[in-house]
Design goal:
Elements lengths: L2 E2 L6 E2 L12 H6 L8 E7 L4 E7 L1 H10 L3 E4 L4 E4 L8 E8 L6 E7 L25
Parallel strand pairs: 3-8
Antiparallel strand pairs: 1-2, 3-4, 5-6, 7-8
Length: about 140
């Protein structure tokens, strides 16, 4: 299975990267996926700070639950990526929940390094849309 190398942009077929895992039938039945078979995953720190938004399919969620490593599906590259596999900015998943509709996953992680691909702590460190500077 192809996994994206975060830092170099190269693809690898590291068999350890995203092995064969299946989502339990109970969880699979609760998920409401979009037309592409994906659900959004909100990723927050243990303090409740929103770090990023990514997409998961059943396999990415199953792998995340089995390994407790943040694993996502890239819509643009059409491949899986494990947060920190090459950058070292890893996510240790300490909690996973579905929202009341079953159409969004909430992951609580112990973030090691920046969560954003830019290296920032969170993907939401940009200027506030109301025009105010972020004091976070």
């Amino acid at each position: 299975m192809k996994v994206h190398n975060e830092s170099s942009g190269h693809r690898s077929t590291d068999s350890e990267a995203v092995g064969d895992y299946e989502l339990s039938e109970e969880i699979a039945q609760q998920l409401k996926r979009n037309e592409a078979g994906l659900v959004p995953a909100i990723v927050q720190s243990e303090r409740g700070e929103v770090l990023m938004l990514a997409w998961m399919d059943d396999h990415a969620l199953a792998y995340t639950l089995a390994t407790r490593r943040g694993t996502y599906y890239s819509r643009s590259r059409r491949e899986y990526w494990i947060k920190g596999l090459t950058s070292g900015n890893t996510q240790e998943v300490v909690g996973a929940r579905l929202d009341c509709d079953g159409d969004t996953v909430l992951l609580t992680v112990r973030q090691h390094g920046g969560a954003c691909h830019t290296g920032d702590r969170t993907c939401f460190d940009a200027r506030d849309l109301f025009g105010e500077e972020n004091n976070g």
